[in-house]
Design brief:
The chain is mainly β and 530 residues long. The protein folds into four domains: 31 residues, no CATH class; 83 residues, Immunoglobulin-like, CATH 2.60.40; 161 residues; 205 residues. Helices cover 4% and strands 54% of the residues.
């Protein structure tokens, strides 16, 4: 063969004989080839898992166009057992090396990092011996065991600030923050009076957002837990603790405290949970004044939406509540209560800020209505100190709108100073009352008002009452000032009745010392429409 032809062919094969050059005078014998294979690992190269947990190593490919066929690929060390679970003895950071050998015996390598955590710092997860959670890694591990083992206890305060760094692909450390834990199995989670600090979730286009995304179980208890300096952003069903929670039997979320935290969502947004339904009991939660919740509809200082038998008792919220788009159902404790059994002993003190045109806004509940389970909602012994900012209709110191309820022992201090706000139906206890099932009573309540708006239908007790049967006001005192536009009444701004009752309002033991100013002002009504 001509030497220059040999040089050309050798170069085409990407193996150039060392003697082949412009001065090549003679053909040289072929030498053994020594180029190493190129190993390419698919996917991420910085991975995490837990001892005893199922784990799949990424696949890899190897090629050597210079030397021919790849004869083998090996992975060392072998951290997986025969079932694909991470073996014991590999806690910490492991360098996993992929090695490829070609037909000439040349070896190429590439590596990944796999960090193995030993989940939990004690316990078996079984009755009487809960898994103990000492670190953020332990908290994250709950997602892998919760469908089999349901008992967990915090052993330490948990520093979750790493959930906001976004520096890796770990479930708590992506740009979207902590990945919510989802379960339909039972969970008994005892916070043991410890705190989770700095939890971050940033998933504005995702529903069911919180430490837990959804819990649907008849074996449920979350208690004695606090959160601080946490930021949660979701879409619908968003809360700090759980996005949505349900149980067909009575179960409890109680003694959960929140400090300096913010929750933002769209519909069904609350500081503790977005939506609680069925027989959930939420009680004795406490949210401080440095916390806030924001959303469009069904937004509350404890929960966004309570339905189908939920009771909400002895909770305290001092959070700022922000309605960031015109809608409805904004409340200091609960945004909307539908077919909820009981709102009792709750306290709200803070500011609710609404977009102009939003309606059904209240210091305890934005909107309360009965359903097939409970024909009457009991709203008793609640205290509200509400400052309302923005132009809202159907606004009240206790509830914005109610349909068929018993309200006893509630106390409201209601401030609403928006002189240019042309809204309708604002009351010291309730903005709009609509009764179409049976007579309703409001009793043993104290109201202090500082209201100055351009509202039509402004009352010391209720802005407007629409009813088919009687309503009783008993042992209620109201003081302060009411300045409105039209239909301003010391007790009711405007009454609409749909039966033949000549006097549909029963007043017994009431004490009204209100300055009432407006066209068609009166005592006790601003106006009665037949």
């Amino acid at each position: 063969m001509h030497p220059f032809l040999y040089c050309f062919l050798s170069f085409s094969a990407i193996l150039l004989n060392s003697s082949c050059n412009l001065m090549l005078l003679q053909e040289q014998p072929s030498a053994q080839k020594s180029n190493t294979p190129l190993v390419t690992i698919d996917g991420q190269t910085d991975l995490f898992s837990y001892e005893g947990h199922a784990f799949t190593l990424p696949t890899a490919t190897a090629a050597d166009k210079q030397d021919g066929e790849i004869t083998s690929i090996t992975i060392t060390p072998n951290i997986l057992d025969e079932s694909g679970n991470v073996r014991s003895g590999f806690e910490g950071v492991n360098t996993i090396t992929y090695s490829a050998t070609d037909s000439d015996g040349n070896v190429g390598t590439s590596s990944i990092s796999v960090t193995v955590d030993v989940p939990f710092c004690g316990g078996t997860g079984l009755f009487g011996d809960p898994f103990m959670i000492c670190t953020l890694a332990d908290l994250n591990a709950v997602r892998y065991y919760i469908d089999t083992y349901g008992l967990y206890t915090l052993a330490n305060d948990i520093d979750a600030t790493d959930t906001s760094s976004g520096s890796s692909t770990r479930e708590w450390n992506t740009a979207s923050g902590f990945l919510p834990i989802d379960t339909t199995a039972g969970v008994i989670f005892n916070g043991n009076n410890k705190s989770i600090n700095g939890l971050n979730i940033n998933r504005p286009e995702t529903d069911y957002i919180g430490l837990f995304s959804q819990i649907s179980s008849d074996d449920l208890s979350i208690s004695n837990l606090s959160f601080s300096d946490s930021t949660i952003v979701g879409k619908n069903y968003t809360g700090l603790l759980v996005g949505r929670v349900a149980s067909s039997i009575v179960n409890y979320i109680d003694n959960v405290d929140v400090v300096s935290s913010s929750i933002t969502g769209l519909d069904q947004v609350g500081i503790i949970t977005g939506h609680a339904l069925d027989n959930i009991r939420i009680r004795e939660t406490n949210i401080d004044s440095n916390s806030s919740v924001a959303g469009r509809r069904r937004v509350g200082g404890v929960l966004g939406y309570a339905s189908d038998g939920v009771s909400v008792t002895y909770n305290e919220s001092y959070a700022s509540i922000i309605n960031n788009e015109v809608s409805q159902d904004i409340g200091g404790i609960v945004g909307q209560a539908y077919d909820a059994f009981l709102l009792n002993g709750n306290t709200y003190s803070g500011t609710i800020t609404v977009e102009n045109g939003t309606f059904s806004v209240g210091g305890i509940a934005g909107h309360s209505a009965p359903g097939p389970l409970y024909s009457t909602t009991f709203i008793n012994n609640n205290t509200s100190t509400l400052t309302l900012v923005g132009c809202a209709s159907y606004a009240g110191g206790i509830s914005g709108t109610i349909t068929q309820a018993e309200m006893n022992g509630n106390n409201a201090n209601f401030s609403f100073n928006e002189p240019s706000c042309s809204s309708s139906s604002v009351g010291g206890i309730v903005g709009e009352v609509f009764f179409d099932i049976a007579s309703t009573s409001v009793s043993n309540s104290t109201i202090s008002l500082n209201v100055s708006t351009n509202t039509t239908g402004l009352g010391g007790f209720a802005g407007i009452i629409v009813l088919y049967e009687n309503i009783d006001f008993t042992n209620i005192s109201a003081s302060g000032s009411l300045i409105g536009n039209d239909y301003v009444g010391s007790i009711v701004g405007r009454m609409k009745r749909y039966d033949s009752t000549e006097n549909p309002l029963s007043i017994d033991g009431t004490s009204v010392t209100l300055l009432s100013v407006g066209t068609n002002s009166g005592d006790p009504y601003g106006a009665i429409d037949p």
